[in-house]
Amino acid sequence: MNFLTIGHRGVMGVEPENTLRSFVAAQEAGLDVIELDLHLSKDGALVVMHDTDVDRTTDGTGAIAEKTLAELRALDAGRGERVPVFEEVLDAVSTPLQAEIKDVQAARALAEVMNRRGLAGRVEVSSFHDEAIAEIKPLVPGVRTALIASRYGTDIVDRAVAAGAETVCLNIRRLTLEIVERARKADLRIIGWVVNTQDHLRLVRAFGLDGATTDHPDIKRTGRFTA
Known about the structure:
By secondary structure, this protein is an alpha/beta fold. The protein has one domain: TIM Barrel, CATH 3.20.20.190. It has helices at residues 20-28, 69-73, 86-92, 106-117, 130-139, 155-163, 177-185, 198-206, 218-223, and strands at residues 4-7, 33-40, 46-48, 97-101, 123-127, 144-149, 167-171, 189-193, 211-214. α4 links the parallel β4 (97-101) and β5. α4 packs parallel to α5 (130-139) and α5 (130-139) packs parallel to α6. The mean pLDDT is 96.
C-alpha cells in the first residue's frame, strides 16, 4: 500500500481550518485524503468544525449545539469563509475523505448522508469515541472506520478491534514499536498524527506506518523520498 498523506482539516497550516478554501487547497496540493470534523447544529445540520464551540475558529462565541445553521452561516470562519456543511465539502472536492465524528450524536446524521449518496467507498469514518465507530458500522454497509487516540497504551488495539475499526490513528508522541507490532498482528492500518516536520516524517516511516496526517501540504512532496 502506498504511504498516504492526509490533510488535517484541509491544510490548516496555511488556510483557515475546516473551510472549503482549505479543502480545495488540500486537493490542489495532491494530498491523498482530506480529514474533517463533524458536529450537529441546534437544528440538526451536519456542520464541519473541530471544537464544540465557535470561539477559536470564527468571529463568534458559543456552543455549536446551541446555534442554528443560519446563525453559524453568519460567522466568519477565516478569510471570509463560512462554516460549511458536510455535503458542501462532498461537492467541492473529489478527494477521498476521512470524516471525524466529534459528537456521537452526529453518527446517525452522517450515516444518512453516506447511504443516500453511496459514500462507503469514498469516506472513512473516524472518531475518538469507540461508541461512534461501533454505532455507524451497522448503519452504513461496507463503511471503513478508524479509531483515533491521543493518550493510549497497547489497549488501543483491543479497543479498535472491539469497535470494528480497520484503522488506528495515533498521536506519534506516544507511539511505540510494541503498539505498532500489536496493531499489525490485528491487521490494523496505522496512521500517525500530526506529522509536520521532517523528523516527524522520518519517525513514522521508520515505524512503517501506512500514512501521516499533516497540517502542511509539502509533506506530500517529501514523504515519498524519506526513509
